[in-house]
Amino acid sequence: MLRSYLAVLAIAAALTPAVFAQTEADKRLDSAADLMTDMMNASDKGIPQDLLDRSECVVLVPGLKKAAFGIGGKFGRGFSLCRRANGTGWTAPAAIRVEGGSFGFQLGVSEQDVMLLVMNMTGMKRLLADKFTLGAEATAAAGPLGRDATAQTDAVMRAEMLSYSRSRGLFAGISLQGATLRPDVDSNEEMYGRKISNKEILTGDVHAPAAAGKLENLLDKNSSRRTK
Predict the structure, then answer these.
(1) How far is 143 from 162, CA to CA, in rounded Å?
(2) Over the chain, what HEC string results?
(3) Of 132, 116, 109, 129, whose CA–CA distance to 79 is shortest?
(4) Residue 177, φ and ψ in degrees, nearest 5
(5) Quick one: pLDDT at residue 29?
(6) Cβ atoms within 10 Å, residue 122
(7) Rounded-to-integer distance, Cα 142 and Cα 177, Å
(8) What is the mean pLDDT of each run of 10 residues along the chain (228 residues)?
(9) d(CA 210, CA 216)
(10) Contact 142, 163 (CB under 8 A)
């Protein structure tokens, strides 16, 4: 009896790391949820509520790396989520990569969290493509701040996407001109256990992984489907 009991304990101990270990995608989903929470709690320094309510999709990139030694570069991995067409909330997260460069004398390495609001269906279609570049294929502008503000500037009204950043706990509008966004194929396979495209995730009825629950709940709570 004791030998059988010890054998069961040994098997459980061996399986526990595999069952409960967080994947890298899970960790990024947690970080994306934390970023969304902080954005919503930023009071008068947060994203205007009316812009969030009008958005078709959000893109969250926690820990975007910016390295600059003469020629600058950007790299980050995150997620996009869009509103379901039937009005039942938000889609499952589709993994994305952000890559880009900038020129001019620069020096140093920094990290910041980035959030994009996709403001119309044209912008949403960009997320379904193999890749697109902000400022080239997609119009983008630094987003205004102020939870109760109503943004009516020409740049905001025309932009397909509005971009925000958080660095050292402070939020700001940010220009991401020249940055390229593309599907993160490896992370999608890690999350869903199979090869799946961002188009299938963002336009279909794909069941979200358990690790995305916190993020989806935050979006449902803070910006339910707007009424026409």
Answers:
(1) 5
(2) CHHHHHHHHHHHHHHHHHHHCCCHHHHHHHHHHHHHHHHHCCHHHCCCHHHHHHCCEEEEEEEEEEEEECEEEEEEEEEEEEECCCCCCECCCEEEEEEEEECCCCEEEEEEEEEEEECCHHHHHHHCCCCEEECCCECEEECCCCCCCCCCCHHHHHCCEEEEEEECCEEEECCCCCCEEEECHHHHHHHHCCCCCHHHHHHCCCCCCHHHHHHHHHHHHHCCCCCC
(3) 116
(4) -55, 130
(5) 94
(6) 13
(7) 10
(8) 44 43 86 87 75 91 69 79 86 92 50 88 91 84 68 68 78 76 94 95 92 92 64
(9) 10
(10) yes
Q: Enumerate the domain spans of the chain.
A: 23-222
pLDDT digits (tens, 9 = 90+) for 164-182: 887 766 666 677 878 889 9
Q: Is the pTM of this model over 0.85?
A: no
Separation between Cα atoms, residue 128 and residue 183, nearest integer Å: 8
Q: How far apart are CA 71 and CA 49, in angstroms?
A: 37
Q: At residue 48, what is the residue type? A: P
pLDDT tens digit sequence for 86-106:
777 899 999 999 987 554 444
Of 120, 136, 117, whose CA–CA distance to 174 is shortest?
117
Separation between Cα atoms, residue 228 and residue 214, nearest integer Å: 27
**135 dihedral zone (left: phi>0; alpha: psi -120 to 50; beta):** left
